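Structure in, sequence out. Go:
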């Protein structure tokens, strides 16, 4: 499992000193993952299909992260070990990102818990990538009294890469009028054959 650590460090710290200052957490991560330490200036070279974490190595990097807002992975997962005021910077960045509708999470604390959480986040990331590029057909609209049931199509595409498409009911009616009972039976049998379980329903229902 490969992790890109997009490293944000104060310009006062050289890359070599970043490694030595965070030797403990980096060494622990390398026991479980293949870790690529990436300078923030190379963030645009990374593919969205790669699992990336923002490594907030020092304080004073809030402005650097904001300047690269458009290139940040979604959601923004930030790793901060608390060294050199990194946790305070991560908290400030997280607040700024959330204020702009971008989900973020800070990994901080016991190394064993951080490792466990990274495995979960990687699994979530892979599920999200499998959804990217898919299309979901929407039939009808929510009733007027369902005030919280609307879907923000643009946000879903930005956050998940999923495209929602409104399908007119006239199109459904057209298919309904043209499909035969035999075709319905075959489709139902095929669907039932792929089901993990079938309860209560019968061939007549």
């Amino acid at each position: 499992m490969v992790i890109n650590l997009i490293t944000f460090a104060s310009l006062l710290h050289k890359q070599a000193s970043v490694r030595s200052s965070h030797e403990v957490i980096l060494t622990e991560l390398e026991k479980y993952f293949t870790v690529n330490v990436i300078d923030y200036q190379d963030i645009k070279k990374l593919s969205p299909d790669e699992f990336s974490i923002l490594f907030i190595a020092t304080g004073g990097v809030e402005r650097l992260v904001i300047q690269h807002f458009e290139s940040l992975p979604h959601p923004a997962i930030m790793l901060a070990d608390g060294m050199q005021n990194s946790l305070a910077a991560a908290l400030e960045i997280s607040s700024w990102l959330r204020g702009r509708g971008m989900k973020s999470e800070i990994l901080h604390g016991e190394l064993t818990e951080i490792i466990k959480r990274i495995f979960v986040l990687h699994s979530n990331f892979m599920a999200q990538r499998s959804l990217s590029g898919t299309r979901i057909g929407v039939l009808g609209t929510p009733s007027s009294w369902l005030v919280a049931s609307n879907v923000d199509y643009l946000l879903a595409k930005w956050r998940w890469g999923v495209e929602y498409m409104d399908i007119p009911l006239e199109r459904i009616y057209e298919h309904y009028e043209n499909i035969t009972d035999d075709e319905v039976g075959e489709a139902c049998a095929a669907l039932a054959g792929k089901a993990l379980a079938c309860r209560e329903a019968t061939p007549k229902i």
